[in-house]
Specification:
The structure is a single chain. By secondary structure, the protein is of the alpha/beta class. The chain has helices at 7-24, 53-66, 69-82, 88-95, 105-114, 136-147, 163-171, 201-211, 255-269, and strands at residues 100-101, 124-130, 153-159, 175-176, 186-192, 212-223, 271-284, 291-303. The chain is built from nine helices and eight strands. An eight-stranded mixed beta sheet has the order 1-7-8-6-5-2-3-4, sandwiched between helices. Helix 4 (88-95) packs parallel to helix 7 and helix 5 (105-114) packs across helix 6. The chain is globular. The mean pLDDT is 88.
Length: 305
């Protein structure tokens, strides 16, 4: 079959073929790891063998949303104009596009429970979401915290660089912080897919260690293979990388090997690995494809006093 002429026709043609591939893709691969008996962190691995109902519902919503051709044309035109004075993140927040998904509330709740966090222990939980984005995943985490204790009071804080995203977080009743040191003794902290986008990831980990309560837990997500990109500076490079093998040996390690390298970084900062899993970092699609994904390492850590 010949490629059709015209930009829109080509995009629709490409989307048809890309979505056909998505329908045939084995999504169990998103969660599969090779935990060799000699792997030091094997005992803390929490398996999620396949997408659960909530994940499948999100995927179906993404597919349905991607069929709105007029919305995607509007987004494409708006991006061409807005890119001259807004970052891509600000544009996404302004257009309310590109929502993300990692784990469902039930999957997060299981991972947290295996990591030693149970909201039943608390009347109130101070929750800090670092780089919360549009708050969609933050809302999932809030639901996860309330699964075992529906009556728990959650004092919710967030940090976010994008001004458009901050406005959305405020509407969700998050107290938006300018600096992490404005809060302390947080029982629960999340830092999802931020470390590879911030200017000094080691300093951020040290700051998390400082604000985390002695018996608290932090859930961290990191895309592997590790690649660093800083949106806010001209070089797009961090002051110091999260892991020293980047960029010279980027993409040369297996998921499990690079996960172990990251775990040692966390331990050197003063964290204990309580539980971890592998999951897709899903993003809503566009005219070319219904959704996109990267692979996330999701780990729950505690603070070594």
């Amino acid at each position: 079959m010949n490629m059709p002429r015209g930009t829109l026709a080509r995009a629709i043609y490409t989307k048809f073929h890309n979505d056909f591939y998505l329908d045939k893709y084995d999504t169990k691969l998103w969660y599969t790891v090779n935990t060799d008996p000699q792997f030091a962190y094997r005992t803390t691995f929490v398996p999620f063998e396949q997408p659960d109902d909530a994940t499948l519902e999100w995927l179906e919503h993404a597919k349905n949303s991607s069929t709105n051709i007029y919305k995607h044309i509007w987004h494409a035109l708006a991006r061409q104009f807005l890119q001259f004075f807004m970052t891509q993140t600000d544009i996404n927040g302004f257009l309310k596009r590109g929502s993300m998904f990692i784990l469902s509330e039930h999957q997060f709740a299981i991972l947290l429970k295996e990591g030693g966090f149970d909201s039943q222990r608390y009347d109130m939980v101070r929750f800090v979401d670092i780089g919360a984005g549009d708050g969609e995943i933050s809302a999932v985490l809030l639901k996860a915290l309330r699964l075992s204790n529906p009556d728990v009071i959650i004092d919710a804080y967030a940090t976010e660089a994008s001004w458009t995203m901050r406005e959305r977080l405020k509407k969700m009743n998050f107290k938006v912080l300018e600096r992490l040191d404005e809060v302390s003794n947080a029982q629960f902290v999340s830092c999802l897919n931020v470390l590879d986008r911030c200017i000094d990831p080691i300093q951020l980990l040290e700051d998390i260690h400082t604000i985390l309560a002695p018996n608290g837990r932090c859930v961290i997500a990191l895309v592997l293979p590790y690649m660093h990109y800083v949106e806010s500076n001209s070089s797009h490079m961090p002051i110091r990388p999260l892991m020293n093998h980047w960029p010279g040996k980027a993409k040369q390690y297996s998921f499990e090997s690079e996960a172990a390298i990251f775990f040692r970084v966390l331990e050197n900062v003063g964290f204990r690995i309580e539980s971890w899993t592998k999951a897709p970092y899903l993003c809503e699609g566009d005219l070319r494809q219904s959704y996109y994904w990267l692979i996330d390492l999701v780990v729950v850590v505690s603070k070594i006093s």
